[in-house]
Amino acid sequence: MKYIHGVSEFELDRPSAVTLGKFDGVHRGHQKLISIVKQKAEEAELLSVLFTFDGIPLSICPQKHQHFITTNEERRKICEDLNLDVEIEYPFTTDFMNMEPERFIADIIVKQMKAKVVVVGTDFCFGKDRAGNAEMLLEKGPEYGFDTVIVEKERYQEREISSTYVREELRLGHMETVNVLLDRPYSISGIVAKGQQLGRTIEVPTMNIYPREIKLLPPNGVYASISMINGKPHFGITNLGTRPTVSDSMEISVETNIFDFAQEIYGEKVEVQLMHFLRPEMKFENIEGLKKQMETDTQFAREMFLLG
Questions:
Q1: What's the burial of 145, exposed, middle or buried (CB within 10 Å: 0-12/13-18/19+)?
Q2: Which tens digits make up the pLDDT trace of 11-44?
Q3: Which of 15, 30, 143, 151 could serve as a FRET partner for 59 with CA atoms 20 to 30 Å apart?
Q4: Residue 200 has pLDDT above 60, yes or no
């Protein structure tokens, strides 16, 4: 997959079918758009393209904490796994925010992306004051030489699937629902770091990664998890939080005990998939209390994963 990141001046080398949006989470609704783009691209021998944003600077959107279901790196990997030809992460600048909708169509959709097919959801908006919409694309398409496909929302439990829906369920720790909406397990990726190595002393070795600050996380607690290491799944339990029994730090860590695993993997990139919320994070009176609870958590997760 070709990746165009953080530059406004680019031009694709051949015509494309493109879908546009924020694509935070790349959930089932987003995947429906991508599937149609790939189909249209295959039918007409076009590039399949996803157009999204590099990020919104704090100078434009002055929220101190912008959190996302997927980081740019995670979204990029998902796009690669979905076999798109090109992902574009366009810089979200003041000039871009104030661009008139028709200029966006003429300069970016037509000139730079050479779009012959544009695929968007019913609520897609663009341009200054969000004045452009799907209907405008449908109206202007014949003039600019592209077809527009407007796609109805996917639904789950009588509700439209959206990034907002995913966020709500994630904040509640409803991992089974989150994973259905995403059509894959919610995951946190990172480089394995050395921790206090306390787990070794209580015969429960753990693997530690630290999520990026922009990553939207579920509640602190213990989860049944699957860790992807070198492309292979490994079952375990994960503590997401500050480890109050053994640390006074407020830094969030993702600490995983992988069942029946003894390899040294410091410095390797791993992906921890959270499958089921077991319990909130607790502070125990002593290490022995923590160890007993971990044994209980482990037995529950083993039974859940049918590991005995």
A1: exposed
A2: 999 999 999 999 999 999 999 999 999 999 999 9
A3: 30
A4: no
CATH architecture of 13-156: 3-Layer(aba) Sandwich (3.40)
Single-letter amino acid, residue 118: V
Q: Where are the alpha helices (DSSP H) in 183-245?
A: 198-201
Residue environment code for 215-253, b if the CB has 16+ CB neighbours within 10 A, otherwise e: bbbbebbbbbbbbbbeeeebbbbbbbbbbebbeeeeebb
Measure the CA–CA gap between 1 and 231, rounded to whole angstroms.
19
Q: What is the distance between the alpha carbons of residues 251 and 292, in angstroms, rounded to a whole number?
A: 24
Residue 276, CA atoms < 13 Å, CB-side half-sphere: 13
pTM of this structure? 0.93
What sign has the CA pseudo-torsion 256, 257, 259, 265?
positive
The label of the residue with tokens 């410095």 reads 267
Task: Give the dihedral of Cα atoms 79, 12, 99, 56; nearest 10 deg.
Answer: 30
3-state secondary structure of 301: helix
> Domain boundaries in the chain?
13-156, 185-304
Q: Which CATH class is domain 185-304?
A: mainly beta
Residue among 34, 9, 8, 11 at smallest CA distance from 21: 34
Rounded CA gap, 58 and 63, in Å?
A: 6
